[in-house]
Amino acid sequence: MPRADYLFTSESVSEGHPDKVCDQISDSIVDMLIGREPEARIAVETAATTNKVVLMGEVKISSENAVSDEEMVERARETIREIGYMQKGFHFKTCNIESFVHEQSADIAQGVDAADNKDEGAGDQGIMFGFATDETPELMPAPILYSHRILHDLAKARHSGEAPSLGPDSKSQLTIEYRDGKPARVHTIVLSTQHLDGNMTPDDVRDVVSPYILKSLPEGWVDDNTIWHVNPTGRFVIGGPDGDAGLTGRKIIVDTYGGAAPHGGGAFSGKDPTKVDRSAAYAARYLAKNVVAAGMASKCTIQLSYAIGVAEPLSIYVDTHGTGEVGDEAIEKSIRGAVSLTPRGIRTHLGLNKPIYRRTAAYGHFGRAPEADGGFSWEKTDLVDALKSGV
Is 88 exposed, middle or buried (0-12, 13-18, 19+ CB in 10 A)? Predict the structure, then answer.
């Protein structure tokens, strides 16, 4: 039987974290290319360190829509400016940025492109997981959802000028106490944030951030017994890539479910949606969320698997963790009849060939509200009726 009473911890990192800087630069370039040519193929990685950013990877785009290295460099610079880096060791104006992005391998392209007698194949082999749980209104695990929310609210306060002493780089971590299998209170709060005033003490920082943290969490979850660790190292002035090197794709657990569910291992950022690492992970979340929203289970994990150059998924696996109102096999059958899970079927159903990716690259790809322009379309619950009718 599953445990009823336990502690579970998840962490998040802010838009100014070195790895998240890189994720956002990579996805800003994805948006730029897809904005010019919706079917562009993109795999762009970013690395960053003190006053240095390197772009690398490969793209496939028609010559009339091609993007120059100079344009990519400028887009990277603009992303750094928007995040807010203007410190001596990492400044959007003076940072040295180089691009080594080149044309996509013909060997990869031939496996992915649609032929006369077959659908477009998956961009790579791999396994992707989706997850949903009814423990929050967003159908997300509470520890990761609220870890994101804390940092997002602090970033809004920083950008608005309400909290001018805070820098872009920060991390949060929440340990949640579960009772009878449901989140009940915050056991421990960990918050480390860059501060621009070198004279600030951890107590000073706590005075600034506490109101935002408390507002970000459900009422009553923080009590007199909640443990706080705010800037436990004592000083955090040097932040971002100046303090620690960054790389695209190193925060995949932060990007997904905070460790509450399996992860197939593939990163999202920097990839166009022919890459099933991204699009099929979005589809798996979409399916799991709709299963829970339909009342078919209170918790659901879905695994999809693919082979490069093969359109249909090799397998669909559903686990409702003993909470299912119908059998897991029946849900699997319903999924197959409700939506196409080929790479093109996913992109068409969720409308993924749009410049909607930079916004996903900080504060989580899941648990966000669907947006009017198609952003976070995988968070819709519009498949409920189709799933119900299929069982």
Answer: exposed
- Report CA 18 to chain centroid distance, whole Å: 15
Q: Does the active-site annotation cover 245?
A: yes
Output the CA angle 257-304-373, nearest 5 degrees. Answer: 65
What is the rounded CA–CA span in Å between residue 338 and residue 291?
A: 12
pTM check: above 0.85: yes
Q: Is 88 a catalytic residue?
A: no
User: Per residue in 169-200, pLDDT tens?
Assistant: 999 999 999 999 999 999 999 999 999 999 99
135 is catalytic: no
Q: Is 251 a catalytic residue?
A: yes
Query: Cα(258)–Cα(135) distance, rounded to whole angstroms?
Result: 14
Helices and strands (DSSP H and E) totals, the chain? 10, 13
C-alpha gyration radius of the chain: 21
**Does an H or E element contain 174, and which?**
strand 166-179
Respond yes or no: is residue 156 known to be catalytic: no
Q: Out of 27, 120, 124, 277, which one is annotated catalytic?
A: 277
Q: Which of 271, 289, 347, 368 is catalytic?
A: 271
- Note if 255 is an active site residue: no
Least confident of 119-128, 189-198, 259-268: 119-128
Closest Cα to residue 64, out of 40, 42, 44, 43? 40
Q: Is 319 a residue of the active site?
A: no
The catalytic position among 8, 11, 15, 17 is: 17
Structure token digits, residue 389: 């009718």
Where residue 51 falls (left for φ over 0; alpha for ψ -120 to 50; beta otherwise) is left
- Is position 289 annotated as part of the catalytic site? no
Q: Is 304 helix (H, G, I), strand (E, B) or coil?
A: strand
Q: Is 171 a catalytic residue?
A: yes
The verdict on whether 244 is a catalytic residue reads yes
> How far is residue 251's CA from residue 19's CA, in Å, rounded to a whole number?
7
Taking the mean position of all CA atoms in its chain, how far away is CA 161? 26
Q: Encode pLDDT of 81-102 as tens digits.
A: 999 999 999 999 999 999 999 9
